[in-house]
Amino acid sequence: MKMITAIVNKKDTGAVCRALTNEGFEFTKLATTGGFLRDGNTTLLIGLDDDKLQAAMDIIRKNCAKRMQKVPALPPTELAASVYHAYPAEVMVGGAIVFVSDVLHFEKM
Ligand code: 2BA
User: Fold this and answer.
1) Alpha carbon of 45 to ligand 1 centroid (Å)
2) Which of 1, 33, 48, 109 has the fewest CB within 10 Å, making it most exposed?
3) Is the CB of 91 under 6 A from ligand 1?
4) 47 Cβ inside 6 Å of ligand 1
5) Quick check: CB of 35 below 6 Å from ligand 1?
6) What is the chain's mean pLDDT, rounded?
7) Is residue 29 very low, low, confident or very high in pLDDT (cuts 50, 70, 90)?
8) pLDDT per residue over 40-85, tens digit each?
9) CA 36–ligand 1 middle distance (angstroms)
């Protein structure tokens, strides 16, 4: 068994979740926040059999777009430190950030 942890742009969340549900996947949806942009995104926990991994990855790939997103202005205290570093005005976000882990044990009690 595998566990997919997928971090998805909030604009893609609806489409990914609909497609996963339509194909019979079970998952948990968490409201999360990116450490860099500090903007809301969604983390999906998808537990599945090994032979379903490719199908789930295909759904995520198909429903998650790459997009440019503006980096928010820094508060004055952080701005002083940042002048010594290159700081991007826009960054490419997504499609999705996906981690696949082996599940040692699964039980529904
Ligand atoms: P954020 O941390 O808000 O990052 C948003 C985008 O900003 C990233 O897109 C990346 O293009 C850029 N970025 C992040 N850190 C940066 C830095 N130190 N300098 C310059 N640019 C930076 P993605 O790579 O597509 O990541 C989208 C979201 O996925 C991230 O939102 C974060 O919530 C999550 N994520 C990405 N990599 C991760 C990792 N290794 N572990 C855990 N979560 C991760």
Assistant:
1) 18
2) 109
3) yes
4) no
5) yes
6) 91
7) very high
8) 999 999 999 999 999 999 999 999 999 999 887 776 566 555 555 5
9) 6
CATH architecture, domain 2-66+93-102: 2-Layer Sandwich (3.30)
Q: What is the pTM of this model?
A: 0.89
Domain range summary for the chain, segments of one domain joined by +: 2-66+93-102
Q: Which pairs from 42-46 meet CB under 8 Å and 24+ separation?
A: 42/7, 42/8, 42/9, 42/10, 42/13, 43/5, 43/6, 43/7, 43/8, 44/4, 44/5, 44/6, 44/8, 44/16, 44/17, 44/20, 45/3, 45/4, 45/5, 46/3, 46/4, 46/6, 46/20
